[in-house]
Structures
1.
Amino acid sequence: MQYEYASTVDLVREITGRCFHDLPSLRDIRRNPDVLLGIDGIGAVSAKRIQAALELGIRYATEPATEQPVITSPEDIILIYGPRLRDLEHERFYVLLMNNAGVITDEVMVSKGIQNSTLVHPREIFREAIRRSASSVILMHNHPSGIREASHEDKIITKQLVEAGRLLDIQVKDHIIICGQSYLSFAENGWLEE
Protein backbone atom coordinates (compact mmCIF):
# COMPACT_ATOMS: atom_id res chain seq x y z
CA MET A 1 0.00 0.00 0.00
CA GLN A 2 1.39 3.39 -0.95
CA TYR A 3 1.00 6.44 1.23
CA GLU A 4 -0.94 9.35 -0.27
CA TYR A 5 0.66 12.69 0.56
CA ALA A 6 -1.68 15.57 1.26
CA SER A 7 0.65 18.05 -0.40
CA THR A 8 4.07 18.60 -1.85
CA VAL A 9 5.10 20.19 1.45
CA ASP A 10 4.16 16.97 3.29
CA LEU A 11 6.26 14.95 0.84
CA VAL A 12 9.24 17.26 1.35
CA ARG A 13 8.88 16.90 5.12
CA GLU A 14 8.78 13.12 4.75
CA ILE A 15 11.89 13.06 2.56
CA THR A 16 13.92 15.39 4.75
CA GLY A 17 12.66 13.86 8.00
CA ARG A 18 13.12 10.20 7.20
CA CYS A 19 16.06 10.11 4.84
CA PHE A 20 18.20 13.14 5.47
CA HIS A 21 19.28 15.10 8.50
CA ASP A 22 19.90 18.39 6.74
CA LEU A 23 19.44 19.95 3.33
CA PRO A 24 23.09 19.60 2.19
CA SER A 25 22.75 15.83 2.54
CA LEU A 26 20.18 15.99 -0.27
CA ARG A 27 23.13 15.94 -2.68
CA ASP A 28 22.96 12.14 -2.38
CA ILE A 29 19.73 12.34 -4.40
CA ARG A 30 21.57 14.21 -7.11
CA ARG A 31 24.05 11.39 -7.45
CA ASN A 32 21.65 8.53 -6.87
CA PRO A 33 17.88 9.03 -6.98
CA ASP A 34 17.39 5.41 -5.88
CA VAL A 35 17.84 6.50 -2.24
CA LEU A 36 14.27 7.78 -2.46
CA LEU A 37 12.80 4.40 -3.34
CA GLY A 38 12.64 3.45 0.35
CA ILE A 39 9.93 6.03 1.00
CA ASP A 40 6.33 4.90 0.66
CA GLY A 41 4.69 6.49 -2.33
CA ILE A 42 7.89 7.13 -4.28
CA GLY A 43 8.59 4.91 -7.25
CA ALA A 44 11.29 5.10 -9.90
CA VAL A 45 9.48 7.75 -11.94
CA SER A 46 8.83 9.94 -8.89
CA ALA A 47 12.44 9.55 -7.77
CA LYS A 48 13.65 10.80 -11.18
CA ARG A 49 11.20 13.72 -11.00
CA ILE A 50 12.45 14.68 -7.54
CA GLN A 51 16.03 14.46 -8.78
CA ALA A 52 15.12 16.71 -11.71
CA ALA A 53 13.39 19.18 -9.38
CA LEU A 54 16.47 19.26 -7.15
CA GLU A 55 18.66 19.98 -10.19
CA LEU A 56 16.30 22.76 -11.28
CA GLY A 57 16.42 24.23 -7.77
CA ILE A 58 20.22 24.20 -7.80
CA ARG A 59 20.32 25.86 -11.21
CA TYR A 60 17.75 28.45 -10.19
CA ALA A 61 19.68 29.27 -7.02
CA THR A 62 22.96 29.58 -8.89
CA GLU A 63 21.76 31.26 -12.08
CA PRO A 64 23.28 34.69 -12.30
CA ALA A 65 20.80 37.51 -11.96
CA THR A 66 19.62 39.32 -15.08
CA GLU A 67 21.89 42.18 -14.12
CA GLN A 68 25.19 40.36 -14.03
CA PRO A 69 27.47 41.04 -11.08
CA VAL A 70 30.99 42.27 -11.67
CA ILE A 71 33.44 39.47 -10.89
CA THR A 72 36.07 40.79 -8.49
CA SER A 73 37.31 37.63 -6.78
CA PRO A 74 37.24 33.82 -6.96
CA GLU A 75 34.55 33.85 -4.26
CA ASP A 76 32.21 35.55 -6.74
CA ILE A 77 32.68 32.59 -9.09
CA ILE A 78 32.25 30.04 -6.31
CA LEU A 79 28.94 31.57 -5.25
CA ILE A 80 27.61 31.09 -8.76
CA TYR A 81 29.23 27.83 -9.87
CA GLY A 82 30.22 25.99 -6.67
CA PRO A 83 26.80 24.41 -6.07
CA ARG A 84 26.59 23.28 -9.69
CA LEU A 85 30.00 21.63 -9.90
CA ARG A 86 31.05 20.48 -6.45
CA ASP A 87 29.01 17.24 -6.36
CA LEU A 88 29.48 16.03 -9.93
CA GLU A 89 31.07 12.62 -10.46
CA HIS A 90 33.07 13.64 -13.56
CA GLU A 91 35.34 16.56 -14.32
CA ARG A 92 33.90 19.36 -16.40
CA PHE A 93 35.98 22.17 -17.82
CA TYR A 94 34.37 25.55 -18.46
CA VAL A 95 35.54 28.82 -19.90
CA LEU A 96 33.74 31.89 -18.59
CA LEU A 97 33.73 34.68 -21.16
CA MET A 98 33.97 38.21 -19.78
CA ASN A 99 33.58 41.72 -21.11
CA ASN A 100 35.68 44.82 -20.32
CA ALA A 101 33.55 45.56 -17.25
CA GLY A 102 34.44 42.22 -15.63
CA VAL A 103 30.97 40.74 -16.20
CA ILE A 104 30.46 37.14 -17.35
CA THR A 105 28.78 37.30 -20.73
CA ASP A 106 28.65 33.58 -21.37
CA GLU A 107 29.83 30.21 -20.14
CA VAL A 108 31.01 27.41 -22.36
CA MET A 109 31.52 23.81 -21.26
CA VAL A 110 34.63 22.86 -23.19
CA SER A 111 34.87 19.26 -22.08
CA LYS A 112 33.37 16.62 -19.85
CA GLY A 113 35.80 14.01 -18.66
CA ILE A 114 36.10 10.91 -16.60
CA GLN A 115 36.30 10.86 -12.82
CA ASN A 116 39.77 12.32 -12.54
CA SER A 117 40.63 14.05 -15.78
CA THR A 118 39.38 15.97 -18.75
CA LEU A 119 41.00 17.06 -21.97
CA VAL A 120 41.10 20.65 -23.16
CA HIS A 121 42.90 22.34 -26.00
CA PRO A 122 43.61 26.05 -26.47
CA ARG A 123 41.66 26.17 -29.74
CA GLU A 124 38.43 25.06 -27.97
CA ILE A 125 38.93 27.63 -25.23
CA PHE A 126 39.68 30.58 -27.45
CA ARG A 127 37.40 29.70 -30.39
CA GLU A 128 34.38 30.74 -28.36
CA ALA A 129 36.15 33.68 -26.75
CA ILE A 130 37.02 35.09 -30.18
CA ARG A 131 33.62 34.31 -31.69
CA ARG A 132 31.80 36.04 -28.85
CA SER A 133 34.25 38.97 -28.54
CA ALA A 134 35.36 38.26 -24.98
CA SER A 135 38.02 40.58 -23.61
CA SER A 136 39.09 38.09 -20.93
CA VAL A 137 38.30 34.59 -19.68
CA ILE A 138 38.24 32.65 -16.46
CA LEU A 139 39.02 28.95 -16.69
CA MET A 140 37.19 26.67 -14.31
CA HIS A 141 36.89 22.98 -13.64
CA ASN A 142 35.96 20.68 -10.81
CA HIS A 143 37.77 17.92 -8.96
CA PRO A 144 35.20 15.21 -8.19
CA SER A 145 37.65 13.77 -5.65
CA GLY A 146 37.41 17.00 -3.64
CA ILE A 147 41.21 17.12 -3.45
CA ARG A 148 42.29 20.75 -3.18
CA GLU A 149 45.42 20.50 -5.26
CA ALA A 150 46.37 21.47 -8.81
CA SER A 151 47.74 18.52 -10.74
CA HIS A 152 50.82 18.74 -12.91
CA GLU A 153 48.48 18.58 -15.95
CA ASP A 154 46.37 21.45 -14.53
CA LYS A 155 49.48 23.60 -14.31
CA ILE A 156 50.72 22.70 -17.80
CA ILE A 157 47.41 23.39 -19.56
CA THR A 158 46.98 26.65 -17.63
CA LYS A 159 50.43 27.83 -18.71
CA GLN A 160 49.60 26.98 -22.34
CA LEU A 161 46.27 28.81 -22.14
CA VAL A 162 47.80 31.91 -20.54
CA GLU A 163 50.42 32.04 -23.32
CA ALA A 164 47.78 31.53 -26.04
CA GLY A 165 45.65 34.25 -24.47
CA ARG A 166 48.56 36.69 -24.57
CA LEU A 167 49.03 36.06 -28.30
CA LEU A 168 45.30 36.68 -28.89
CA ASP A 169 45.09 39.64 -26.49
CA ILE A 170 42.52 37.79 -24.37
CA GLN A 171 43.63 37.77 -20.74
CA VAL A 172 43.25 34.61 -18.67
CA LYS A 173 42.19 36.19 -15.37
CA ASP A 174 42.13 32.98 -13.32
CA HIS A 175 41.87 29.23 -13.36
CA ILE A 176 39.61 28.09 -10.55
CA ILE A 177 39.32 24.49 -9.44
CA ILE A 178 36.20 23.67 -7.45
CA CYS A 179 37.12 21.00 -4.90
CA GLY A 180 34.01 19.94 -2.97
CA GLN A 181 33.19 22.74 -0.53
CA SER A 182 36.51 24.45 -1.22
CA TYR A 183 38.35 25.85 -4.22
CA LEU A 184 41.80 26.62 -5.55
CA SER A 185 42.62 29.78 -7.49
CA PHE A 186 45.68 30.03 -9.73
CA ALA A 187 45.52 33.84 -9.54
CA GLU A 188 45.46 33.87 -5.72
CA ASN A 189 48.46 31.55 -5.67
CA GLY A 190 50.42 33.59 -8.22
CA TRP A 191 50.57 30.64 -10.65
CA LEU A 192 49.39 32.55 -13.73
CA GLU A 193 52.72 34.37 -13.91
CA GLU A 194 54.91 31.27 -13.75
2.
Amino acid sequence: MPPMKLYLRYLLRQLALPALVATLAFSGAVWLSQSLRFVDLIVNKGLPVTTFLYLTALLFPSLLLIILPVALFAAVLFVYHRLTQESELTVMKAVGLSNLQLAGPAVLLASAVSLFCYTVSLYLMPLAFSSFRDLQYEIQRDFSHLLLQPGVFNTPLKDVTVYIREHRRDGTLAGILVHDERQRRQPETMMAEQGFLVQGEAGPLFVLENGNRQELDLDSDPERPELRILHFDRYTLDLAAAASPPDDRSRKPKELFLGQLFNPGDELSEQTRREYLVEAHERLTWPLNALVFALIGLAALLARGFDRRGQWKRTVGAVVAVVVVQALSMAAGGLAETSLRFVPLMYLVPLVPALGALLMIRSGSWLGFRAVTRPAPAAG
Protein backbone atom coordinates (compact mmCIF):
# COMPACT_ATOMS: atom_id res chain seq x y z
CA MET A 1 0.00 0.00 0.00
CA PRO A 2 1.43 3.50 -0.89
CA PRO A 3 2.80 5.49 2.07
CA MET A 4 0.19 8.23 1.59
CA LYS A 5 -2.63 5.73 2.06
CA LEU A 6 -0.94 4.29 5.11
CA TYR A 7 -0.71 7.59 6.97
CA LEU A 8 -4.28 8.49 5.99
CA ARG A 9 -5.72 5.25 7.33
CA TYR A 10 -3.54 5.42 10.43
CA LEU A 11 -4.62 8.93 11.40
CA LEU A 12 -8.27 8.17 10.67
CA ARG A 13 -8.13 5.16 12.99
CA GLN A 14 -6.48 7.27 15.67
CA LEU A 15 -9.21 9.89 15.39
CA ALA A 16 -12.27 7.64 15.09
CA LEU A 17 -12.16 5.99 18.51
CA PRO A 18 -11.57 9.17 20.60
CA ALA A 19 -14.28 10.95 18.61
CA LEU A 20 -16.71 8.11 19.30
CA VAL A 21 -15.80 7.98 23.00
CA ALA A 22 -16.16 11.77 23.34
CA THR A 23 -19.52 11.67 21.57
CA LEU A 24 -20.82 8.93 23.87
CA ALA A 25 -19.50 10.71 26.97
CA PHE A 26 -21.00 14.08 26.05
CA SER A 27 -24.25 12.43 24.94
CA GLY A 28 -24.54 10.59 28.25
CA ALA A 29 -23.94 13.74 30.26
CA VAL A 30 -26.43 15.77 28.21
CA TRP A 31 -29.01 12.96 28.27
CA LEU A 32 -28.74 12.76 32.06
CA SER A 33 -29.21 16.51 32.47
CA GLN A 34 -32.17 16.55 30.10
CA SER A 35 -33.83 13.43 31.49
CA LEU A 36 -33.93 14.94 35.00
CA ARG A 37 -36.62 17.27 33.65
CA PHE A 38 -38.91 14.26 33.09
CA VAL A 39 -38.08 12.08 36.10
CA ASP A 40 -41.01 13.59 37.99
CA LEU A 41 -43.34 12.24 35.31
CA ILE A 42 -42.24 8.71 36.24
CA VAL A 43 -41.88 9.04 40.01
CA ASN A 44 -44.98 11.08 40.82
CA LYS A 45 -47.21 10.97 37.76
CA GLY A 46 -47.15 7.41 36.54
CA LEU A 47 -45.56 7.87 33.12
CA PRO A 48 -44.38 4.51 31.69
CA VAL A 49 -40.61 4.08 31.44
CA THR A 50 -40.88 3.24 27.74
CA THR A 51 -42.65 6.54 27.07
CA PHE A 52 -40.04 8.36 29.13
CA LEU A 53 -37.19 6.81 27.12
CA TYR A 54 -38.92 7.62 23.84
CA LEU A 55 -39.55 11.19 25.00
CA THR A 56 -35.90 11.80 25.87
CA ALA A 57 -34.67 10.05 22.71
CA LEU A 58 -36.61 12.55 20.60
CA LEU A 59 -34.43 15.32 22.04
CA PHE A 60 -31.21 13.79 20.74
CA PRO A 61 -31.21 15.05 17.13
CA SER A 62 -31.22 18.69 18.24
CA LEU A 63 -28.54 17.95 20.85
CA LEU A 64 -26.31 16.20 18.31
CA LEU A 65 -25.77 19.49 16.49
CA ILE A 66 -23.96 20.72 19.60
CA ILE A 67 -22.40 17.45 20.79
CA LEU A 68 -20.79 16.23 17.56
CA PRO A 69 -18.69 19.35 16.75
CA VAL A 70 -17.47 19.61 20.34
CA ALA A 71 -16.68 15.87 20.52
CA LEU A 72 -14.72 16.02 17.26
CA PHE A 73 -12.83 19.09 18.45
CA ALA A 74 -11.87 17.28 21.67
CA ALA A 75 -10.75 14.23 19.66
CA VAL A 76 -8.55 16.36 17.37
CA LEU A 77 -6.86 18.06 20.33
CA PHE A 78 -6.31 14.74 22.11
CA VAL A 79 -4.96 12.79 19.11
CA TYR A 80 -2.66 15.44 17.64
CA HIS A 81 -1.36 16.33 21.10
CA ARG A 82 -0.49 12.69 21.74
CA LEU A 83 1.09 12.25 18.31
CA THR A 84 3.24 15.32 18.93
CA GLN A 85 4.27 14.18 22.40
CA GLU A 86 5.31 10.80 21.00
CA SER A 87 7.18 12.47 18.09
CA GLU A 88 5.03 10.68 15.50
CA LEU A 89 4.14 13.94 13.77
CA THR A 90 7.83 14.83 13.67
CA VAL A 91 8.58 11.56 11.90
CA MET A 92 5.75 12.11 9.41
CA LYS A 93 7.04 15.59 8.64
CA ALA A 94 10.53 14.20 8.22
CA VAL A 95 9.36 11.86 5.42
CA GLY A 96 7.93 14.83 3.54
CA LEU A 97 4.32 15.18 4.72
CA SER A 98 3.10 18.78 4.87
CA ASN A 99 0.82 20.27 7.50
CA LEU A 100 -2.09 20.18 5.05
CA GLN A 101 -1.50 16.47 4.43
CA LEU A 102 -1.32 15.77 8.17
CA ALA A 103 -4.54 17.73 8.67
CA GLY A 104 -6.25 15.88 5.79
CA PRO A 105 -7.62 12.91 7.80
CA ALA A 106 -9.13 15.19 10.45
CA VAL A 107 -10.61 17.45 7.77
CA LEU A 108 -12.02 14.39 5.98
CA LEU A 109 -13.64 13.13 9.20
CA ALA A 110 -14.91 16.62 10.05
CA SER A 111 -16.45 16.93 6.57
CA ALA A 112 -18.27 13.62 7.06
CA VAL A 113 -19.53 14.78 10.46
CA SER A 114 -20.71 18.07 8.93
CA LEU A 115 -22.65 16.19 6.25
CA PHE A 116 -24.27 14.04 8.92
CA CYS A 117 -25.10 17.20 10.90
CA TYR A 118 -26.82 18.58 7.79
CA THR A 119 -28.94 15.42 7.68
CA VAL A 120 -29.82 15.95 11.32
CA SER A 121 -30.46 19.67 10.91
CA LEU A 122 -32.56 19.51 7.76
CA TYR A 123 -34.53 16.32 8.36
CA LEU A 124 -34.12 14.44 11.64
CA MET A 125 -34.33 17.41 14.03
CA PRO A 126 -37.65 18.88 12.78
CA LEU A 127 -39.15 15.40 12.54
CA ALA A 128 -38.07 14.42 16.08
CA PHE A 129 -38.87 17.78 17.67
CA SER A 130 -42.36 17.77 16.18
CA SER A 131 -42.96 14.26 17.52
CA PHE A 132 -41.56 15.33 20.90
CA ARG A 133 -43.95 18.27 21.21
CA ASP A 134 -46.91 16.17 20.06
CA LEU A 135 -46.11 13.53 22.67
CA GLN A 136 -45.51 16.13 25.35
CA TYR A 137 -48.84 17.76 24.53
CA GLU A 138 -50.68 14.45 24.65
CA ILE A 139 -49.12 13.63 28.03
CA GLN A 140 -50.35 16.95 29.38
CA ARG A 141 -53.85 16.21 28.08
CA ASP A 142 -53.90 12.56 29.23
CA PHE A 143 -54.85 12.98 32.88
CA SER A 144 -54.56 9.26 33.52
CA HIS A 145 -50.79 9.77 33.27
CA LEU A 146 -50.50 13.33 34.50
CA LEU A 147 -51.98 12.69 37.94
CA LEU A 148 -52.64 15.59 40.24
CA GLN A 149 -50.18 15.89 43.09
CA PRO A 150 -51.68 15.61 46.58
CA GLY A 151 -51.33 18.36 49.15
CA VAL A 152 -50.75 21.19 46.66
CA PHE A 153 -52.93 23.46 44.55
CA ASN A 154 -52.66 22.19 40.97
CA THR A 155 -53.55 24.18 37.87
CA PRO A 156 -54.11 21.57 35.15
CA LEU A 157 -55.91 24.10 32.95
CA LYS A 158 -56.08 27.86 32.80
CA ASP A 159 -58.55 29.23 35.38
CA VAL A 160 -59.04 25.77 36.95
CA THR A 161 -57.46 25.05 40.34
CA VAL A 162 -57.58 21.56 41.88
CA TYR A 163 -56.61 20.42 45.36
CA ILE A 164 -56.65 16.80 46.52
CA ARG A 165 -55.84 15.43 49.94
CA GLU A 166 -54.49 12.05 48.88
CA HIS A 167 -54.05 9.69 45.99
CA ARG A 168 -55.17 6.16 46.80
CA ARG A 169 -53.57 2.97 45.55
CA ASP A 170 -56.60 2.06 43.45
CA GLY A 171 -56.20 5.28 41.43
CA THR A 172 -59.02 7.26 43.05
CA LEU A 173 -58.51 10.69 44.60
CA ALA A 174 -59.78 11.66 48.05
CA GLY A 175 -60.59 15.04 49.58
CA ILE A 176 -61.15 17.02 46.37
CA LEU A 177 -61.65 20.76 45.91
CA VAL A 178 -62.04 22.28 42.43
CA HIS A 179 -62.36 25.99 41.71
CA ASP A 180 -63.43 26.75 38.13
CA GLU A 181 -63.30 30.35 36.87
CA ARG A 182 -63.62 29.65 33.14
CA GLN A 183 -67.03 31.36 33.35
CA ARG A 184 -65.94 34.69 34.82
CA ARG A 185 -69.42 35.86 35.84
CA GLN A 186 -70.38 32.47 37.31
CA PRO A 187 -67.37 30.95 39.11
CA GLU A 188 -67.90 27.48 40.58
CA THR A 189 -66.39 25.70 43.55
CA MET A 190 -66.85 21.94 43.93
CA MET A 191 -65.98 19.76 46.89
CA ALA A 192 -66.18 15.98 46.90
CA GLU A 193 -65.20 13.09 49.14
CA GLN A 194 -63.56 11.23 46.26
CA GLY A 195 -63.26 11.11 42.49
CA PHE A 196 -61.23 9.90 39.54
CA LEU A 197 -60.04 11.04 36.14
CA VAL A 198 -61.11 9.42 32.87
CA GLN A 199 -60.36 10.12 29.23
CA GLY A 200 -63.48 10.91 27.25
CA GLU A 201 -63.91 11.10 23.50
CA ALA A 202 -63.44 14.88 23.48
CA GLY A 203 -60.83 15.03 26.24
CA PRO A 204 -60.35 14.51 29.98
CA LEU A 205 -63.26 14.24 32.40
CA PHE A 206 -63.11 14.66 36.18
CA VAL A 207 -65.73 12.47 37.89
CA LEU A 208 -66.57 13.64 41.45
CA GLU A 209 -68.54 11.58 43.98
CA ASN A 210 -70.44 12.57 47.17
CA GLY A 211 -70.02 16.32 47.20
CA ASN A 212 -71.54 19.67 46.36
CA ARG A 213 -71.22 22.39 43.73
CA GLN A 214 -71.36 26.05 44.76
CA GLU A 215 -72.03 28.57 41.99
CA LEU A 216 -71.82 32.32 42.50
CA ASP A 217 -73.98 34.32 40.07
CA LEU A 218 -72.41 37.77 39.80
CA ASP A 219 -74.96 38.93 37.20
CA SER A 220 -77.96 38.56 39.52
CA ASP A 221 -77.02 41.35 41.93
CA PRO A 222 -73.52 42.95 41.90
CA GLU A 223 -73.81 43.94 45.58
CA ARG A 224 -75.34 40.67 46.84
CA PRO A 225 -74.64 37.96 44.23
CA GLU A 226 -76.75 34.84 44.40
CA LEU A 227 -75.11 31.68 45.73
CA ARG A 228 -76.53 28.39 44.45
CA ILE A 229 -75.58 25.08 46.05
CA LEU A 230 -76.14 21.69 44.47
CA HIS A 231 -75.50 18.43 46.34
CA PHE A 232 -74.67 15.44 44.19
CA ASP A 233 -73.82 11.76 44.42
CA ARG A 234 -71.85 11.91 41.16
CA TYR A 235 -70.88 14.92 39.07
CA THR A 236 -68.79 15.01 35.90
CA LEU A 237 -66.62 18.04 35.27
CA ASP A 238 -65.60 18.50 31.63
CA LEU A 239 -61.97 19.54 31.38
CA ALA A 240 -61.81 19.22 27.61
CA ALA A 241 -63.09 22.71 26.84
CA ALA A 242 -59.67 24.31 27.21
CA ALA A 243 -57.81 21.45 25.58
CA SER A 244 -57.09 21.26 21.87
CA PRO A 245 -55.75 18.43 19.76
CA PRO A 246 -52.06 18.50 18.80
CA ASP A 247 -52.92 19.36 15.19
CA ASP A 248 -54.46 22.65 16.34
CA ARG A 249 -51.52 23.86 18.41
CA SER A 250 -49.04 26.36 17.05
CA ARG A 251 -45.87 24.96 15.52
CA LYS A 252 -42.47 26.22 16.60
CA PRO A 253 -39.77 26.97 14.01
CA LYS A 254 -37.73 23.92 15.07
CA GLU A 255 -40.61 21.66 14.03
CA LEU A 256 -40.65 22.91 10.44
CA PHE A 257 -38.59 21.74 7.48
CA LEU A 258 -36.37 24.05 5.47
CA GLY A 259 -38.90 24.70 2.71
CA GLN A 260 -41.56 25.65 5.26
CA LEU A 261 -39.16 28.04 6.98
CA PHE A 262 -38.22 29.85 3.77
CA ASN A 263 -41.92 30.06 2.75
CA PRO A 264 -43.74 30.71 6.05
CA GLY A 265 -46.90 32.19 4.53
CA ASP A 266 -48.36 35.68 4.40
CA GLU A 267 -50.63 35.27 7.43
CA LEU A 268 -47.72 35.44 9.91
CA SER A 269 -46.47 38.63 11.51
CA GLU A 270 -43.23 40.22 10.35
CA GLN A 271 -41.47 39.24 13.58
CA THR A 272 -42.53 35.60 13.19
CA ARG A 273 -41.41 35.56 9.57
CA ARG A 274 -37.98 36.83 10.64
CA GLU A 275 -37.76 34.10 13.27
CA TYR A 276 -38.57 31.47 10.66
CA LEU A 277 -35.96 32.79 8.22
CA VAL A 278 -33.27 33.03 10.92
CA GLU A 279 -34.03 29.45 11.95
CA ALA A 280 -33.62 28.38 8.30
CA HIS A 281 -30.21 30.05 8.03
CA GLU A 282 -29.14 28.53 11.36
CA ARG A 283 -29.99 25.09 9.94
CA LEU A 284 -27.53 25.83 7.11
CA THR A 285 -24.71 27.29 9.22
CA TRP A 286 -24.62 25.29 12.47
CA PRO A 287 -23.48 22.00 10.83
CA LEU A 288 -20.36 23.86 9.65
CA ASN A 289 -19.18 24.02 13.26
CA ALA A 290 -17.81 20.47 13.05
CA LEU A 291 -15.42 21.50 10.28
CA VAL A 292 -14.61 24.90 11.80
CA PHE A 293 -13.84 23.53 15.27
CA ALA A 294 -11.62 20.78 13.85
CA LEU A 295 -9.67 23.32 11.77
CA ILE A 296 -9.12 25.52 14.82
CA GLY A 297 -7.74 22.55 16.76
CA LEU A 298 -5.47 21.57 13.85
CA ALA A 299 -4.18 25.13 13.49
CA ALA A 300 -3.24 25.14 17.17
CA LEU A 301 -1.30 21.86 17.11
CA LEU A 302 0.29 21.76 13.65
CA ALA A 303 2.15 25.09 13.79
CA ARG A 304 5.88 25.05 13.18
CA GLY A 305 8.48 25.56 15.82
CA PHE A 306 6.51 23.51 18.33
CA ASP A 307 7.60 23.76 21.95
CA ARG A 308 6.39 20.90 24.17
CA ARG A 309 6.34 23.17 27.19
CA GLY A 310 4.07 25.66 25.45
CA GLN A 311 1.57 23.19 24.04
CA TRP A 312 -0.99 23.81 26.76
CA LYS A 313 -1.09 27.49 25.80
CA ARG A 314 -2.05 26.62 22.23
CA THR A 315 -4.64 24.15 23.48
CA VAL A 316 -6.19 26.80 25.73
CA GLY A 317 -6.07 29.25 22.84
CA ALA A 318 -7.94 26.79 20.62
CA VAL A 319 -10.62 26.25 23.29
CA VAL A 320 -11.04 30.00 23.72
CA ALA A 321 -11.30 30.45 19.94
CA VAL A 322 -14.03 27.80 19.73
CA VAL A 323 -15.98 29.42 22.57
CA VAL A 324 -15.70 32.82 20.87
CA VAL A 325 -16.90 31.43 17.53
CA GLN A 326 -19.85 29.75 19.25
CA ALA A 327 -20.74 32.97 21.10
CA LEU A 328 -20.47 35.03 17.92
CA SER A 329 -22.73 32.56 16.08
CA MET A 330 -25.42 32.98 18.74
CA ALA A 331 -24.98 36.76 18.69
CA ALA A 332 -25.27 36.85 14.89
CA GLY A 333 -28.51 34.88 15.08
CA GLY A 334 -29.88 37.32 17.65
CA LEU A 335 -28.99 40.30 15.47
CA ALA A 336 -30.57 38.67 12.44
CA GLU A 337 -33.86 38.34 14.34
CA THR A 338 -33.90 42.13 14.74
CA SER A 339 -33.01 42.78 11.09
CA LEU A 340 -32.44 40.41 8.17
CA ARG A 341 -29.54 42.62 7.05
CA PHE A 342 -27.41 40.74 9.56
CA VAL A 343 -28.07 37.32 7.95
CA PRO A 344 -24.73 37.39 5.99
CA LEU A 345 -23.00 37.73 9.35
CA MET A 346 -24.31 34.27 10.29
CA TYR A 347 -22.28 32.82 7.41
CA LEU A 348 -19.19 34.98 7.95
CA VAL A 349 -18.83 33.91 11.60
CA PRO A 350 -17.97 30.26 10.77
CA LEU A 351 -16.34 30.84 7.36
CA VAL A 352 -13.80 33.49 8.41
CA PRO A 353 -12.31 31.40 11.29
CA ALA A 354 -12.25 28.35 9.00
CA LEU A 355 -10.31 30.25 6.31
CA GLY A 356 -7.99 31.73 8.92
CA ALA A 357 -7.30 28.30 10.41
CA LEU A 358 -6.52 26.88 6.95
CA LEU A 359 -4.02 29.67 6.31
CA MET A 360 -2.39 29.00 9.68
CA ILE A 361 -2.11 25.28 8.94
CA ARG A 362 -0.59 25.94 5.52
CA SER A 363 1.87 28.58 6.73
CA GLY A 364 2.70 26.68 9.91
CA SER A 365 2.14 29.70 12.15
CA TRP A 366 -0.21 30.02 15.14
CA LEU A 367 -2.18 33.26 15.43
CA GLY A 368 0.07 34.86 12.84
CA PHE A 369 3.38 34.30 14.66
CA ARG A 370 5.91 31.96 13.07
CA ALA A 371 8.12 30.35 15.67
CA VAL A 372 11.85 30.42 15.02
CA THR A 373 13.46 26.99 14.91
CA ARG A 374 16.69 26.98 16.82
CA PRO A 375 19.68 25.46 14.99
CA ALA A 376 21.15 22.29 16.42
CA PRO A 377 24.42 22.79 18.35
CA ALA A 378 27.61 22.02 16.41
CA ALA A 379 29.18 18.65 17.07
CA GLY A 380 32.44 18.59 19.02
